[in-house]
Amino acid sequence: MNKNYILKTRLAVRCLSVFLMIVFSTNFSEALAQSKTISGTVSDNYGMTLPGVSVVIKGSTQGTVTDLEGKYVLTSDGDMGTLVFSYIGYSTQEVVVGNLNVLDITLEEDLVGLDEVVVVGYGVQQKKDVTGATSSISKDDMNQGAITNPLQQISGRAAGVNITQIGSEPGSRPTVRIRGITSLIGGSDPLVVIDGIQGNLDLLNQVPPSEIESIDVLKDASATAIYGSRGAPGVIIVSTKRSKSGQATIEYTGSVSVDQIANELDVLDAQGWREQARIWNVPFSEDHGSDTDWYDVLTQTGMTQNHTVALGGGSQNFNYRASVSAILQDGVVINSSNKNYIASISATQKAVDDRLTMTFTMNNSIRKNIGSPGNVGRAQFTSNLISNAYVSKPTDPVLFENGDYFFDPNVFQYINPYAVAETVINESESRSQFTTFRTDFEIIDGLKAGWFGSWRKVDVNSGYYAPAASTLAGAIDQEGIANVNTNLTDEKLMDISLSYDKDFGKHKINAIGVYEWQRQTYQGHFAQTKGFINDLTSYHALQLGSVSRYLPGDISSYKNDRTLVSFLGRVNYSFADKYILTASMRRDGSSVFGQEHQWGNFPSVSAAWRLGDEDFMKGQNAVSTLKLRAGYGVTGNQQGLSPQQSLQLVGASGSTYFNGGLITNFQVIQNANQNLKWETRRQTNVGIDFGFAQDKINGSVDIYTATTDNLLFNYAVPQPPYPFGSMAANVGSLRNDGLEIALNYHLLDNRDWSVTLAGNVTFMRNEVEKLSGNIGGVEVNTNYVGWGFNSYLIEGQPIGTFYILENDGKESGTNEELVVDRNGDGVIDQGNESPDRYLAGTALPTFTYAFTPTIKFKNFDLTMVWRGSGGNMIFNRIKKDFSLYESLGKSNMLVSAENLGLFTSQYASDLWLEKGDYVRFENLAIGYTFNAAKIRNISSMRLSVVGNNLALFTKYSGLDPELNLSGGNGSGLDAGIYPRTRSIAVGLHVSF
Q: How many CB atoms lie within 10 A of CB 477?
């Protein structure tokens, strides 16, 4: 037999043996030469034995687990050195074996406290040493169930972090605001950092929720200033799971949920419509003789599936983890779905006596989305597809007798929503990849040099086709509309760092200096064609459209980029583990600003006093933890600006005939502004962390104030001297003040029961301090800027303040709405600064809160999330549009319209303005953790049943009060949303 073949065979057998030894370590260890045997029992601090505890020889893959009685026996043919005892929910212990033959261990519960590690900018700190305002959520505290985005896992879990889910459309993500609105056009979305990768909120789509180890939120400027321009709205740091040395695991985490619409609006059925039609003298010809529930026609039972398979392992110097995930959603609106496939791998190698550490990560995802068409409808009502179910009369059939989609030619721009759902193609595919490499080398004791690089690419391709059969007016007029759209993003980041960490007796110093370079490149193409003789190719063959229907704007493309260069440094100093000081400075240079204003300096300083560790606090049992914190910092913002925002740009302006030919005209579409500079945010924070009765009661209180200066906004400017009517400039200022309280109470904790009551509340106030100012020597008087439907930007008032007419009943003869003539001049002025209007509240909540209790009984656990907000108002445009009987012959109406009895209105008054307060029973999870020692080759297994969005308590009459609260234009407006779902999920986690 070939000698090489024999050697290869032996090598394969040895590799297989190593693999089987990892999986069946107990069985194999008994078969080895028994030169050293140790045994013992592992218990908790109540004296109860613990089954399934991992017992591993440090630096090797050899180990075992405790049996049903908490006992273990471990045999080795060499010196065992140190044993590592680890168990979920308990602190890991390492014990030197020496000459011991019997070793009993008591594991302490790993309670969340001030000794936990918090991930901060460019490093980690123990929570006891943190001086800024942060919130940390571990995987054990995250929300469960039909989770499709990591933000849903922390909803309600952190004070000052407002996460809003607007409807449940597949593929949609929540919005998040950390300590309110930080900017008008500069971007209020926080920076997301995933294992060093920096990006926007879309980056979270590349992380399977089940693969997240922890999420840390940096809230105040003293914590976020280290990220400079990108950290102004706050920072969300996501740490993914890593394998532990000496443990080889295969894990499956999965859940399947059934999703149903949680709430529907009460509209007239066919019988009710006919009764109202008789009362209001609607012609009989408007009744088409059917009995159609359009909401039922357009909806279905949805389903959400999450499946993740992960494997990992390693030795003392090497570990790896790889995972494959599928997040699959079928929406409650027909023909809407989202499928997200994610694959990732990470590996860490140590060398040179553990002084060199190298980490590599690669992640790929593919998202395929079929979207429910949006912005469709008639001239007087345009919204998403499902909201058009309110428009369609219940007496209209879905189909003609010949099977064609029903269409009423007597109604202007009539649409059949079922025809739209069945015939319009609205799909996209997003391919995302990111790769990172990090290396750290310890030059001397405490001094490390590091290099980090990342590259992220996102390619989004979408296609749209609306045939004439869709009944959409534009598609009928144009004989079919097709378009394709491609958007490419390329992001590169590199940083070089030098850090020093050393203790000098009572003095502890940690310092880091970083040079960072980032470049973002964007490129896109759009093409559209109309006029198709058939629908066979949809958007896949644009050349089959009619050339004669081409219009300017049907073809476009772009390419631009932005560069950010940064120098940053931070020093953490601690004396006697009681007095802590943190100072940082970051200098950013951005290509988007004028030549003289590209650089900005962003300093921060914060301090903490661990008052509870002072000598005069010893000898008492009431206060177990007490830490005072204070910080100040400045951050910059540039995210809302395009790469060429400071330059004058020229664009197309129609066509004209010249010298017998058709040529394209051009005009200025953006004014130059070489004075465009950094928007800056100054924030002060004072906080206290406390614990009483051995931290049985613990929590924190933070008070902050933050002012955004040099406010970026598109200000209206005079023509001339400016060729274009608006201009991005730094003029105004914006202020946020807030109070955050977080509290945990360990009500009960014994060997059978554990009851923890937790919650948080945030009070906040937002104010537009200034909008007017000087731009290039020209005074700009800006106030009462429209910021939604009857909401405005008003100096001295919160963003999105409602300034509105007051309802005064109706005219008895005509049933027309009346409003109050506040200045008594006999004329109702509907201008933005009308004296007939009054201030009627804000679109943004003034307080948010959450209650998150946890109950454990033996192997059972139960967690709940109750969440709510209030102090805001909502303009219910859906109610306004479907409560006037003048439209009864052309559309359906809400049942509540009968109580109003309004025929028509020429006003958008406070009759349609409602309070947006609500309490939502958001999450209920019941789980059971099996005794893994009874199941061969399984180290842990948990089964759960989770309900999401189980109940909603509100006086708001619309579909859901959780609407656009992002602070952008349109906040506080209900113009129709994709329905919010109620889901019941069954989940399983198994680790082998």
A: 12
SS3 letters for 137-160? EEHHHCCCCCCCCHHHHCCCCCCC
List, in sequence order, the alpha helices (H) in 479-614: none
The beta-strand segments (E) located in 352-424 are 356-370, 376-378, 381-383
Instruction: Give the model confidence (pLDDT) of 669-708 as tens digits.
Output: 888 888 888 889 999 999 999 999 888 999 999 999 999 9
Under a CB-based contact definition with an 8 Å cutoff, are residues 609 and 630 in contact? no
In Å, what is the CA distance from 183 to each residue of 100, 769, 803? 64, 12, 21
- Mean pLDDT for 914-942 is 88
C-alpha distances in Å from residue 52, one per residue of 71, 201, 697, 729, 940:
9, 39, 31, 63, 8
Segment 102-132, tens digit of pLDDT:
899 888 766 444 446 666 767 777 767 678 8
Name the least confident of 129-143, 285-299, 560-574: 129-143
For every residue of 585-616, which 3-state class applies, written as one string?
EEEEEECCCCHHHCEEEEEEEEEEECHHHCHH
962, 973, 811, 796: which is closest to 877 by C-alpha? 973
Give the whole-angstrom CA distance, residue 875 versus residue 981. 22
Question: Would you put residue 577 in left (φ > 0), alpha (ψ -120 to 50) or beta?
Answer: left
**pLDDT value, residue 21:** 38
Kindly compute the dihedral angle of the four CA atoms of residues 382, 386, 392, 395, in this order, to the nearest 10 degrees. Answer: 180
* SS3 (DSSP) at 636: strand
Distance from C-alpha of 749 to C-alpha of 745, rounded to nearest angstrom: 11
Of 780, 767, 765, give the one whose Cα is nearest residue 708: 767
What is the percentage of the chain residues whose pLDDT exceeds 90?
56
Write out pLDDT tens, residues 969-989.
778 899 999 999 999 999 999
Query: Which whole-number Å values give the CA distances from 875 to 166, 312, 783, 880, 918, in the listed order?
Result: 16, 52, 21, 9, 15
- Omega prior to 720 cis, within 30 of 0: yes
User: How far is residue 883's CA from residue 327's CA, in Å, rounded to a whole number?
Assistant: 40
pTM: 0.85
Please say whether the beta carbons of 182 and 640 come within 8 A: no
CA 681, chain centre distance (Å): 22
Phi, psi of 204 (to 5 degrees): -65, -20
Return the residue matching tokens 């850090």.
499
Summarize pLDDT for 774-821 with one digit per residue, the tens: 887 888 888 999 888 899 999 999 999 999 999 999 998 899 999 999
Identify any residues that bridge with 767 across adjacent strands, giving them in sequence order.
735
Residue 23 zone, left/alpha/beta (φ > 0; ψ -120 to 50; rest): alpha
Cα–Cα nearest to 766, from 839, 843, 713, 868: 843
Amino acid at 901: G
Residues 83 and 66: beta-carbon distance below 8 Å = no
DSSP 959-982: S-S----SSSTTTTEES--PPPEE
Output the furthest CA–CA distance in the chain (Å, rounded).
Answer: 110
Cβ density class 939-961: b for 16+ within 10 Å, e for less: bbbbebbbbbbbebebebbbbbb
Q: Which residue has the tokens 């019997």?
A: 102
Residues 543, 102: Cα–Cα separation, whole Å: 81
Which of these, 923, 986, 992, 991, lies nearest to 254 by C-alpha position? 986
Query: Could you tell me which of 612, 628, 608 has the C-alpha nearest to residue 620?
Result: 612
DSSP 8-class letter at 894: B
Distance CA 459, CA 464 (A): 17
C-alpha closest to that of 493 among 555, 439, 566, 421: 566
